[in-house]
Amino acid sequence: MNLSAPFISRPVATVLLSLAIMLLGAVSFRLLPVAPLPNMDFPVIVVSASLAGASPEVMASTVATPLERSLGSIAGINTMTSNSSQGTTRIILQFDLDRDINGAAREVQAAINASRNLLPSGMRSMPTYKKVNPSQAPIMVLSMTSTVLEKGQLYDLASTILSQSLSQVSGVGEVQIGGSSLPAVRIELEPQMLSQYGVSLDDVRTAITSTNVRRPKGFVEDDQHNWQVQANDQLETAEDYAPLIIRYKDGATLRLKDVAKVSDAVEDRYNSGFYNNDRAVLLVVNRQAGANIIETVAQIKAQLPALRAVLPASVSLNIAMDRSPVIKATLHEAEMTLLIAVVLVVMVVFLFLGSFRASLIPTLAVPVSLVGTFAIMHLFGFSLNNLSLMALILATGLVVDDAIVVLENISRHIHNGLDPMKAAFLGAKEVGFTLLSMNVSLVAVFISILFMGGLVESLFREFSITLSVAIIVSLIVSLTLTPMLCARWLKPREAHGENAFQRWSERVNDQMVAGYDRSLGWVMRHRRLTLLSLLVTVVVNIALYVVVPKTFLPQQDTGQLMGFVRGDDGLSFSVMQPKMETFRLSILADPAVESVAGFIGGSGGTNNAFMIVRLKPISERKLSAEKVVERLRKNMPHVPGGRLFLAPDQDLQLGGGR
Q1: 43-132, which class in CATH?
Q2: Tally of CB atoms within 10 A around 66
Q3: Confidence band (pLDDT; 50, 70, 90) for 316?
Q4: Domain boundaries 5-37+327-497, CATH class
């Protein structure tokens, strides 16, 4: 059976088939999302709980422990990590990779409900959970700074204007705001004054809640009309709250300002953001699953002028972190590598075949196979990332092999005197099933990655399928387009003679064959020495394997560092701030650092802080991110009671958190 015969006999249909493969691939290429790594679903759930005023020890014993006991009964948990700080507890649950995240979320909620009676009665709300994906790192962080507005006002602008506008950008998922909280009125009661006037906490609470409420005011009517009475009696500022009447006694009026300090503040005063040397509110932008990072960031940047226009003139909106330049550069390097690989393959083919016509046939197999692979990648929901592009780079050498095998066999029959058409039928028939078995065995090797399970399968799934698809497409091309072109483009050398380049190519090939023959003869005469060389090579390789550093993924230089500052347990917010300032100023003074943004306190606790360090382009700083971290650690001053952890930011963060 000749698999190629129908395609050799129908050149127009064969060409149309190849063009259809190219067209589908070209259209799919424009639709593929761009990402640094494949989209992986890590089943990770974070449970958060808060208890106002509780120390880390109290949070660990009264909140974290009951929750851990209840959550520990859930099946499929791989690791469970808890972190308790002032007033907050955070429990990270990482499940097995084959665990359904939605089913796990339902069990987590059931476990939280089961622990309700074991938790302190003073908790204002039940613990909450959130599904997270460590592989979905933020794609951009924006900072809002102002020398005029308070941070509560900045937060209000961020939540009412910026967050809403950014969420409407195509590809944007969640927009988180940090570094402050919404404006609020803070009432600090003075115990001595309460005792002096004989007022209890309930008296003050009742007065505040009963006065600051929107109630219907009734209506006014006459014979023909009815008017609803409206009054704006909602209290919003400290000036409104201060004269609030607590009670009347002996004709005297006791007001809130007589027993308390009333001031305009924010809901959480133990939360402060910064950008370089300014206080700031940060907006952390996450993308939707499968969204194109580069396009999403480009759309956000296009929106920034309009967003700046609606903000007060005293507010500055800056980019504190942007992942797109590094992703662009990485993918550009991968694309250039792919292009260089294609060019080198074409040059080598031309060098050894010595004929432009003959070289063009396997050369056409490369773009048809690679571009056609994009259609299957889009069908499977894959993205253009480092691993899928690496698969295409490896496939470049593999896809041309099939075409060369067919070409060489057909050329041999033509040189032996057969007509090119008959040679195409005979040559393709002889190697058709050989190519089929060879490619099936290659696909079996790469597709076996899908059966490994765990993180390796999730990470290399796109790599395995992309490479296998490229091999299958190249097999189709080599059995259809290649023999058809051979039947019509190849001519006997006697028909047109040999040119100088072909004669030179044959001499080079003859010399290489002669050199191989001499080396093979020497090896056969020195068998013991050859076996000894093989043994030494194996031993050296084993020794090098032992000493070479090992890691699951190589260290990346994304142009950004992530910093985490932890103070001693029980450290207050006011004491933590100067420690953080010392670290911040030291980092900002480094010549490789472009900007530093972050926040202290918040949900992480008063003794914790987080930083995003943006480095200058590699052309300006000359050092890798890892070397910059080493220099920062070396020059970092000693801060009693505070520890700084710095590391280059990575596209894939394992372990459920930083």
Answers
A1: alpha beta
A2: 19
A3: very high
A4: mainly alpha
